[in-house]
Amino acid sequence: xxxxxxLAMVNEKYQDNVIESAKSAGATGVTILNARGEGIHSQxxxxxxxxxxxxxxxxxxxxxxxxxxxxxAIYEAGHLSxxxxxxxxSLNVDRALGLESQMPTMEKDAKDRYF
Length: 115
Known about the structure:
Helix content is 31%, strand content 33%. The chain has helices at residues 12-24, 67-77, 103-114; strands spanning 3-10, 31-36, 44-46, 49-51, 54-63, 86-93. The longest helix has 13 residues, at 12-24.
């Protein structure tokens, strides 16, 4: 099997919708880390203190053939077309270990999709 990792930094208010949408599109799990993003625009300040926006970084390890569907689901659910709502991208994975518990589900999904 070929895998991709999808990394999505989303606003907290959209996190649950993004996760549910990704799962509906075929993701079997997610790892969530707290993150702080800094983009092209400077951070807002209040009385000399920088106001940092915290976002959650979502990691999805998915099969290659469903990665685009999951990316589209994340884009829509996270409102990523709107300024400041986050970013998502995917990377190829050379090797993945420890997926034994998810393999039956992945194999069934692949069979259902292609046969």
